[in-house]
User: Fold these one by one.
Assistant:
Number 1:
Amino acid sequence: MRMKTVYSDPVFGEKRLTDTINFIENNGMSGPVLVIGHRVKFETELQKEFKEQFDYTDFDLHYPFSTIGDSKEFYKTILCFEVIEHLLNPLLLLTECKKLMRPDAQMYISYPTHNFKVFWTSGHFHEYDKSRFEYLLKVAGLNVVDYSEKVGRSKKIGIRPLLKNTPICWVKYQFYCLAK
């Protein structure tokens, strides 16, 4: 089943792209690469930077990944940027990704977190602080190799974006490099 979305390409700035590239470069990337989610401009820019062939999921992520090839298909790198907060069952996503990882594979995952729930976007079912997310990773059987947190600023106009750009309401992007 093809994943249907009401969202357009996420808006990202050069700083967000640069932060992601630097984080991946610090830990390394090699193919084959699986991107969790459909093709968006952000991953297209990453593909240009790293010159790797990317495979994309094109099915509903709320169900087991029975639609990815056969069990012999394993990935050296899995990218999952700004997806997990949109899922009803994030543990399912993590355990399904783990099944597709080679023994020496790495998974890169990021998600935004806000200090106050009022700033969550309507498509977010979950937002995590560091300790809650790391507990979720532990339950999924994934180990943290590296972690980084970066502050994102909104370029939109209006009251909510104005408030989000104050230190108490900053959006923070959590970056993880994970292994089995």
Number 2:
Amino acid sequence: MKSAPRLRRGLNPTALLWLLGVWLLLWGSISPLAIGSGLLIAIVLLVATPQPPVEIGLRLRPLRMLRLLVYLTVDLVAASVRVTVQILRPGPPESAIFEVALRVRGGLMMTMVAIAVSAVPGSTVLDVRPERGSLEIHVLDASAPDAEQAIDREVRRLERLIVAAFGPKAERERVREGGGR
């Protein structure tokens, strides 16, 4: 007969410190009472609600992260100029909504791509469709004849850079092979 899990098994030091930090932020001060009560509550929560270990598969590649950051910074500046020009033009911009297929399938990778797309002025992710592996994106300026292909290329480039910087091997291979379509 198996014994109940030991108390130590549920006491992940990282989770304990994270919960304590949140508790101290809620208190708004660091005092012996706040630290003591925060530790007590964190221990009770971790023991009473044990969670299985989660492997998110995130791999940090600093040089690829730097490349992504530089690309996003340049894109942010260029997009800001494009949006400013759109605003200064007379009449409303010709906007559109496109569905763009993603090659990544992991929830974290899809979320990171969606955040990166929405962070750049002129485009906003309206919906993430994990079951279809796609993003629904509103584009402020869709006046160019190839607007749909342009947003598709932009999302693919962001997807490639994000997966290169953070993605697990399976996602990198899927993006390299062009999967997801």
Number 3:
Amino acid sequence: MNQPDHSQNTGKRKKDIIITDTEAIILQKKLRAGRLVTLGCYSGLLVMFALLNLFRDTGSIKLWLVQSVPLLIFIPALRHETHRSYSWLCFVALMYFVAIIPLLMGRWWWSDWLITLLVTLLFIASMMTSRWLQYWNYYLSIKRQSNFSNTAESSNT
């Protein structure tokens, strides 16, 4: 993605993003992979919380609800796939990260390691998916504008 600089009357520089069709194909592949990793880690966390709280003697339904409800809120948002839903998922992942690290350092259980890995991957994947989705939507809007201007020019002639 090239970003040429253009000066305006205000003296500030504006960066226009130029996404070519070949870059768009790569961007679409990245976006697909990011969605898969995000949804995989998201599902993995929900499954881990269910397994640890519902099938262990030390688990409880109240703790399962506290752990799962913040993630379950994102089900409708992830179905609509806006970059904001992925960005908010990053913030929620940070909450889980802050909660799991003291437990990890104190207990060293395999489940704490797995949750830490899933939360870290969820944060990175949702952050990158949010960015790639912004670029993809920008690319689609530029394509629509160019198609609209091409059809308007051909109808005028």
Number 4:
Amino acid sequence: MIRFLIVIILIILALLIFRNSRKNISNDKPDIYKKIILAVIILAIIFFLATSGKFIIPQILKITKIILPFLTKFIGV
């Protein structure tokens, strides 16, 4: 997973560099690099959750189960 995160960070940095160099050249074209960067980040998060979901999702459910009584106490239900 660490290698995957490093690769994603390098891809995002490369896209940011291309975006900045393109921004300096022309401003009248739509900024497609912004959409590509956002898509890469979202796909990386989805991939990370899909591959390690068996570890993350049960932990989130445990935390929710612990926090729910306190939350209902503060709401006053």
